[in-house]
Design a protein that fits this description.
This protein has 482 residues and is an all-alpha fold. It has a single domain, classed as Up-down Bundle (Sodium/glucose cotransporter). The chain is 77% helix and 0% strand. The protein has 18 helices and no strands. Helix 3 crosses helix 8 and helix 5 runs antiparallel to helix 12. It is globular and about 70 Å long. The N and C termini lie far apart (67 Å).
Amino acid sequence: MTFAPLDYLVLIIYFAAIASIGLLAGRKEKSTDDFFLGGRAMPWWAVTFSILATEVSAVTFIGTPGDAYRGNYTYLQFAIGSLLGRILIAFLLLPAFYRGRVTSIYQFLSQRFGEKSRRTAVIFFFFSQLLAAGVRLLLISLVLSVVSGYPLGAIIAFVAAVALLYTLIGGIKAVIWTDFFQFFIFMGGAWLAIYFILDAVPGGWTGLRELVPAEKFRVFDFGLSLTAPAVFLIAFLNGCVQTFAALGTDQAMTQRMLTCRNLKQGRWSLILTGIIDFPIVITYLLIGTGLWALYEVVGPTVPAAADPDLIFPHYIMTVLPPGVRGLLIASIFAAAMSSLDSSINALASSAVMDIYRPFIRPGRSEKHYLAASRVFVGVFCVLLIGAALALEQIPGGKLWLGFKVTGFTYGAMLGIFLLGVLTRGSNDRMNIWAMVTSPLVLVALTLSEKFLFPGTTLLAWSWYVVVGTGWTFFWGWFFARR
């Protein structure tokens, strides 16, 4: 089924609203503090929904219903650990960032250790963010290309260009307010999809409970396996550590928390996201369960070879009426751009504050650095388009590629930040060794699985961040003592 004129009208209204909000919100920037931190005066509740919008990327919008379709609700165990990870950030890392009055969180590493640790972390951030954001851009563009019929390259360029438009002019204020709007767009689309799904299931919600086996609603798995990601201990631990790393050491996520007026509001904005995360995850899991009941029990069935991760887009394009279909596609756009704009802004902020300002053009005016910030926004937008096109050439599934990429770098970054807030010693030069060897150890283990022990899982990818964190923290502490 192709787009109807009403679908195009909905999309036009959506893009016009996004552009207008972004342009109106981001005016009167006079400094990099305004452009990257909104003058440190953003409302905490807007920051909360902006963080949520960035987290609930298009990967979640598409992938979580796919997980529920093929399995059950054990993913919620990850969300429980994720809440603990946010609390740890709020009370361990955020106080250090607010005390240091940092714009880029990697400035804290300079204050605590020295420039070598800072520059190493920045390189890790650039590498992981370009690849992870490139994967997210690629995934959403693949879906939109399939449902619209337009070429993949054109879709990638269009999505990136829209995000670039308001980010270039409005900075972080435009990002936060457009994310706030887009959060309710894609959550409204999800709730609307649930309404249509339950309307199609005989008996509605009661009928769904009767048609779906209890196993598909199971949340907890208290097994003893150390490699199965759905076991509670593993899911809880990985949810905690990966959230700790992603929201605490990645400028794209942490930058939002620093726009609040004070530490108390920054903490509250973050912890509240962990609480709201539960109904969000349940919403998308319920979509997957409802689609399973429709296609596997009620009918008609989807093709046997259909990818569960594409079940939701398939339902949107073949079942939903015109107008509603356009709103759901707008929801996918919203989920994509709410993470893309954050990545572009964060990469630019780190480039200016961690490299350009201290090392390339020190001592210039705020007007100069503000202009440079906008140039870097454009540069990184182009690089993200290139990354998405390059990643499209990699064979195999791409849904978890972004998580695997950051798994190699997040551990080193979390380890060095924890070293900064939990210890007093320092060895700036040897911190480089501790960080660089962390992903090398993980690469060695991965290659060993492939060439030395084929068919054997020595270390599941979900453990990468845990191992990398422990390795970096231990060796950083060891060398600091000497």
